[in-house]
């Protein structure tokens, strides 16, 4: 159905794709994997019309096609669902679904037909609960993604590109997405599935194409291979252990951070203690209050009830500045929008907190060099480089370096490895463990259960803004999910 | 741990020395400035005689000051449309002060003016950051208020005069050869340059780049930006002293200067929307703009046509800047991703509009 | 599958009517019309206390008349601002429009059609230029339209030193005739407003304008020709300015180089749009709000006149009102953001 052959592309004279080929059959899920910078997104953008290829050819059903605007790709039946959803928050669901191809009658937009067909499409996706006239901003992320899928269906696409579709989803929402993908393939759509997550790839795809450094490494039948083989092909070496060892029980110090009876408009009855050297994992469904908890401790959306102590002293941060002064740091979930100032240099980003709040390390070149070495910023890019040119993994390391500069006592990580490639992920895991071993109290939020289980000394599970239970080191995914869904019927996400 | 080698930074091509990076965004304007200065030399052989050149510099000085102040506000992600009105108000107010207190010391008057300018900036800053009004509207309102106030106060024709000692800064030379205006500009330029290298400057730049990220990194974004507005107001008041000295009292002293200043700053490679640019570029932009006007004059272009040529050149210069230096701008949805850029690296924080985010 | 299958078990479908109500009330367009009503009542009360009468026929006519030129230009400005752009060239374009109209007519009714066509063609051309500079040359809209404004200004100042041309008698009726207390020009304004409202609400172009202003990247990825949309918005804006120029020419009886700049239509129109609740960043707002904003400014003006407020002091008050109104919106948006 789809054939891409010998695709090449250069940016500013640097070749980022070296004659990569790929094909797709109707009803097939074809996974595309590779580390950040391997060229998979560039390849997808050539297909979706966002970039024009320098060489190679694309055929759909045997007909050669060429796109230089997304509109042309859509007309040819190629749709893409981006990692950052391309929805307009202020417009309604129906307006979003039909954006760019509004049904018209006598030249005018037929709003009734638009609403009707949106309802039909959502029903096909088993998402009847979404009203077509709701502004998209009022929907949860998972529902917004459903709207994106409906949008692709409305365009009558036959090839659908899904770029890291689960990155913003909680575990149980992933299951819903899988159902969705299967339903789409039953309709005869071919799906190109870009993801870092091996479990999804093996659960969904028939074939997996591995890219590295802009070249095609191999294309494997998923049924005939295993995770290790794919990872080996991706990174070109074995990854021995996935997670660093946990702390020995005797190595933990006294309590550093405690919250009792903490609550605000999204949280209630939060009780937690994190000891020096400990990694406390926080699990929960999307909307269960995981991020709200981190933001409350950090003073971004502060607690309005309850007590919080830091190293025995009561603290009550009402804004990030105060939390930082008290020794709290937050590596947030949205690295680009909340963690970094993208047009500034690595150096300026590293020193931002220190300069703004006046705590921690002295602002200077040696401090930066030491911190960057500490977080193992890979490559010789230099501290003068703008952070937007770094890979996702390196960007995350800069965020961590920025917080280390403030010498915090409590480090909150919210989805620290989202959108980070396998190598950098392992490096971040090691770093988190090392920091804990140095006596920091770490709170780790992740929607990726294996990571949470592998990293945490204890796991706190939230449901509906309240603690649903606490599990000792090494719980099973089932235990976590049982607690997480215990009060989840009202958790807001379908 | 060998895993780190898996993600080398491949962006070597983008790298340069600290100097070229510092000049980076200001490079085109420097080229333009040299071109204009060369054209001036060709057009009029006598242009570089000390007297005439210094007169030219003196004429450029107020705009340079305004550009320096405006730069601080723009780089933080806002606009200051009130600076022209501040200049007018400053000149008229000085005349009124001398009308009432003929014997006032020039330094006192200058200090009072600068303080008043800073106060205007403070109001701009507090309304913008505290009440969340887009600065375009705040400073536009401030401009209406100040202009209305000046006319209300003077009835349309300002009275009073400025004594020579007050006008000395705008007209006289230090040590007999160096115009005071140059000294003031150099001092302000150096001051702003130094400020931008300080912690405050870095946090201001970070705020303009991404307000949310800055806020979550502990930057008191409102306070930092308010200071930028205050400095812009003070710089405008200082410019008023120069304008008053150079050309005397007029109720139109500063009209249109806000747009000239913004044009100069943008010409200097500073990104509207914030987060990028150097004060040297901004001031070079102001200098280039004045050189352009002078050149048009010398070329015998009718004074009436001057705006037309200015308009064409400004558009052309900014368009060229947009083409050559591939800075992500709001109208370039998919900036050519730099070589290794992880796909997700497309700039998600393009300034959303001609106006800063409300 | 029919449309009538909202599943009651899911929270998002719960009480959509209530949600719609809430959205309706927080709509700034509603607020600004309430404010217009409030200002009118207040004006009436204040003037009445002083022993005058506010809602007299000449006064109402005056207010409406004042609305027309600013209203037309602000409607045009609404189009570009919604699309995420801006037009600072409207004031000089309006001046030039009056000059072209008056000179082409040269006092003769026979030239009326030619003049109208000439003005609209000129404006469409300038709008096209604005749009292309913004989209093709990728110049920030602020700078692009400021540059075009300067170009127009130079042209005007080079060719005209004072009023020029002569508007034919029958065309001047557009400026002065009225039906009851309502000037005919108000119907022109209402007609243009209805047309634009219709464009925004019921055409694909309108939907694409909101989309482009809301998130240009997302719109482009959805297949919207964003550049074309921006260009068309600029042309529509300039055409509105052309219509305003024709009205102004009819009012003055001649072309005036200061027709647009004296009233500062560039900044005033933006103020009216923002006062009407349209987001300066684009993507949110509309025609109804803008008309409300224009009405508030016109009523205020009239109240100040009645009270014989010093015209310069009027400017001061106006500045305060604009800032205060936008501060109120910003507040509303902030608290809405928190509740999300």
TrEMBL record, chain A:
GO terms for molecular function: ATP binding; ATP hydrolysis activity. Keywords: ATP-binding, Cell membrane, Membrane, Nucleotide-binding, Repeat, Sugar transport, Translocase, Transport. The keyword Isomerase does not apply. Pfam families: ABC_tran (PF00005). GO terms for cellular component: plasma membrane. It is found in: Cell membrane. This is Sugar ABC transporter ATP-binding protein. It comes from Streptomyces sedi.
Automatic annotation (TrEMBL), chain B:
It is found in: Cell membrane. One of its GO terms (molecular function) is transmembrane transporter activity. InterPro entries: ABC_transp_permease. The lineage of its organism: Bacteria, Bacillati, Actinomycetota, Actinomycetes, Kitasatosporales. Residues 333-342 have a biased composition (Pro residues). Pfam families: BPD_transp_2. Residues 326-358 are annotated as: Disordered. The keyword Phosphoprotein does not apply. It is a multi-pass membrane protein. Keywords: Cell membrane, Membrane, Transmembrane, Transmembrane helix. The chain crosses the membrane at residues 22-41, 53-74, 81-98, 104-123, 135-154, 174-195, 227-247, 253-272, 279-296, 308-325. Its main location: membrane. Residues 343-358 have a biased composition (Low complexity). The keyword Zinc does not apply. This is ABC transporter permease. GO terms for cellular component: plasma membrane.
Automatic annotation (TrEMBL), chain C:
The chain crosses the membrane at residues 30-49, 70-92, 112-132, 139-156, 179-200, 230-250, 312-330. It comes from the Bacteria. CDD domains: TM_PBP1_transp_AraH_like. It holds the Pfam family BPD_transp_2. One of its GO terms (molecular function) is transmembrane transporter activity. One of its GO terms (cellular component) is plasma membrane. The keyword Transmembrane applies. Keywords: Cell inner membrane, Cell membrane, Membrane, Transmembrane, Transmembrane helix, Transport. It is a multi-pass membrane protein. It is found in: Cell membrane. This is Autoinducer 2 import system permease protein LsrD.
């Amino acid at each position: 159905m789809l054939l891409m052959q010998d695709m090449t592309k250069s940016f500013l004279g640097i070749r980022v794709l070296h004659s990569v080929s790929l094909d797709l059959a109707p009803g097939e899920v074809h996974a595309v994997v590779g580390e950040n910078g391997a060229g998979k997104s560039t390849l997808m953008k050539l297909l979706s019309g966002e970039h024009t290829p320098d060489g190679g050819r694309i055929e759909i059903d045997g007909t050669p096609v060429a796109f230089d605007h997304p509109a042309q790709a859509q007309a040819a039946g190629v749709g893409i669902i981006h990692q950052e959803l391309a929805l307009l928050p202020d417009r309604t669901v129906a307006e979003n679904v039909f954006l760019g191809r509004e049904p018209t009658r006598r030249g005018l937009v037929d709003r009734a037909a638009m609403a009707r067909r949106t309802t039909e499409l959502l029903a096909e996706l088993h998402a009847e609960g979404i009203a077509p006239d709701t502004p998209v901003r009022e929907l949860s992320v998972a529902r917004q993604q459903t709207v994106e899928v409906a949008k692709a269906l409305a365009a009558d696409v036959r090839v659908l590109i899904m770029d890291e579709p689960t990155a913003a989803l909680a575990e149980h929402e992933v299951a819903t997405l899988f159902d969705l993908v299967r339903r789409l393939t039953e309709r005869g759509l071919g799906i190109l599935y870009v993801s870092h997550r091996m479990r999804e790839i093996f659960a969904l795809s028939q074939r997996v194409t591995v890219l590295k450094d802009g070249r095609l490494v191999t294309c494997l039948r998923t049924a005939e291979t295993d995770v290790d083989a794919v990872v080996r092909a991706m990174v070109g070496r074995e990854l021995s252990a996935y997670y660093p060892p946990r702390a020995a029980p005797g190595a933990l110090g006294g309590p550093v951070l405690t919250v009792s009876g903490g609550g605000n408009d999204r949280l209630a009855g939060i009780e937690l203690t994190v000891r020096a050297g400990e990694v406390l994992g926080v699990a929960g469904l999307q909307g269960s209050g995981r991020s709200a908890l981190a933001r409350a401790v950090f003073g971004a959306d502060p607690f309005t009830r309850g007590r919080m102590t830091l190293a025995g002293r009561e603290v009550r941060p009402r804004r990030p500045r105060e939390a930082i002064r008290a020794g709290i740091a937050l590596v947030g979930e949205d690295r680009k929008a909340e963690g970094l100032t993208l047009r500034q240099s690595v150096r300026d980003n590293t020193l931002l907190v220190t300069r703004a709040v006046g705590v921690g390390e002295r602002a200077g070149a040696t401090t930066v060099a030491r911190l960057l070495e500490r977080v193992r910023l890979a490559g010789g890019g230099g501290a003068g480089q703008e952070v937007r040119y770094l890979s996702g993994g390196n960007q995350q390391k800069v965020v961590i370096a920025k917080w280390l500069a403030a010498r915090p006592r409590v480090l909150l990580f919210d989805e620290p490895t989202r959108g980070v490639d396998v190598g950098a992920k392992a490096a971040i895991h090691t770093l988190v463990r090392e920091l804990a071993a140095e006596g920091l109290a770490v709170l780790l939020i992740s929607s990726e259960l294996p990571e949470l289980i592998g990293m945490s000394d204890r796991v706190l599970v939230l449901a509906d803004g309240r603690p649903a239970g606490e599990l000792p080191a090494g719980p099973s995914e089932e235990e976590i999910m049982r607690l997480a869904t215990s009060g989840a019927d009202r958790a807001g996400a379908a | 741990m060998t895993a780190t080698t898996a993600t080398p930074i491949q962006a070597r091509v983008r790298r340069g020395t600290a100097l070229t990076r510092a000049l980076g965004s200001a490079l085109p304007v420097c080229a333009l400035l040299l071109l204009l200065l060369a054209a001036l030399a060709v057009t009029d052989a006598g242009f570089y005689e000390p007297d005439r050149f210094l007169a030219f510099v003196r004429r450029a000085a107020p705009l340079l000051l305004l550009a320096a102040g405006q730069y601080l506000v723009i780089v933080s992600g806002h606009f200051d449309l009130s600076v022209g009105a501040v200049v007018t108000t400053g000149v008229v107010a000085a005349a009124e002060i001398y009308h009432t207190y003929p014997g006032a010391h020039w330094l006192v008057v200058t200090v009072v003016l600068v303080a008043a300018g800073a106060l205007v900036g403070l109001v701009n800053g507090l309304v913008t950051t505290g009440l969340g009004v887009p600065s375009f509207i705040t400073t536009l309102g401030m401009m209406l208020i100040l202009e209305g106030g000046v006319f209300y106060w003077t009835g349309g024709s300002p009275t009073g005069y400025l004594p020579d000692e007050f006008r000395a800064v705008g007209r006289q030379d230090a040590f007999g050869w160096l115009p005071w205006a140059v000294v003031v500009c150099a001092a302000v330029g150096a001051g702003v340059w130094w400020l931008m290298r300080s912690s405050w400057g870095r946090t201001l730049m970070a705020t303009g780049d991404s307000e949310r990220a800055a806020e979550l990194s502990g930057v008191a974004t409102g306070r930092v930006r308010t200071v930028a507005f205050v400095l812009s107001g003070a710089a405008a008041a200082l410019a008023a002293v120069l304008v008053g000295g150079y050309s005397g009292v007029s109720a139109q002293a500063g009209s249109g200067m806000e747009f000239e200043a913004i044009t100069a700053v943008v010409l200097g490679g500073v990104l509207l929307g914030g987060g990028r640019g150097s004060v040297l570029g901004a001031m070079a932009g102001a200098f280039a703009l004045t050189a352009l006007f002078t050149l048009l004059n010398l070329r015998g272009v009718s004074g009436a046509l001057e705006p037309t040529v200015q308009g064409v050149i400004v558009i052309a210069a900014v368009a060229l800047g947009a083409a050559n230096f591939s800075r992500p701008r709001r109208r370039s949805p998919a900036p050519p991703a730099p070589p290794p850029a992880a796909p997700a690296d497309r700039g998600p924080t393009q300034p959303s509009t001609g106006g800063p985010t409300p | 599958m029919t449309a009538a299958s909202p599943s009651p078990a899911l929270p998002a479908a719960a009480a959509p009517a209530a949600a719609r109500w809430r959205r309706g009330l927080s709509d700034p367009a509603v607020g600004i019309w309430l404010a217009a009503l409030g200002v009118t009542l207040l004006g009436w009360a204040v003037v009445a206390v002083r022993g005058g009468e506010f809602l007299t026929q000449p006064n109402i006519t005056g207010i409406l008349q004042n609305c027309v030129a600013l209203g037309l230009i602000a409607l045009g400005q609404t189009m570009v601002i919604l699309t995420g752009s801006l037009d600072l060239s409207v004031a000089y374009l309006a001046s030039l429009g009056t000059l072209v109209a008056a000179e082409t007519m040269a006092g003769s009714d026979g030239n009326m059609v030619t003049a109208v066509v000439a003005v609209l063609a000129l404006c469409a051309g300038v709008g096209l230029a604005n749009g292309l500079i913004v989209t093709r040359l990728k110049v920030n809209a602020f700078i692009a339209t400021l540059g075009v404004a300067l170009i127009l200004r130079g042209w005007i100042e080079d060719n005209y030193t004072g009023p020029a041309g002569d508007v034919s008698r029958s065309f001047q009726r557009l400026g002065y005739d009225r039906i009851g207390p309502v000037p005919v020009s108000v119907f022109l304004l209402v007609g243009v407003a209805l047309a634009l409202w219709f464009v925004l609400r019921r055409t694909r172009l309108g939907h694409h304008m909101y989309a482009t202003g809301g998130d240009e990247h997302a719109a482009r990825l959805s297949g919207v020709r964003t550049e074309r949309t921006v260009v068309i918005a600029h042309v529509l804006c300039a055409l509105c300015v052309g219509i305003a120029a024709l009205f102004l020419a009819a009012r003055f009886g001649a072309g005036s180089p200061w027709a647009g700049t004296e009233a500062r239509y560039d900044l005033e129109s933006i103020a009216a749009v923002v006062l009407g609740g349209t987001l300066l960043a684009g993507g949110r707002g509309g025609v109804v709000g803008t008309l409300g904003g224009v009405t508030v400014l016109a009523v205020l003006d009239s109240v100040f006149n009645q009270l014989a407020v010093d015209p310069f002091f009027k400017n001061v008050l106006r500045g305060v009102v604009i800032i205060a109104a936008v501060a109120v919106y910003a507040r509303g948006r902030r608290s809405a953001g928190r509740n999300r």
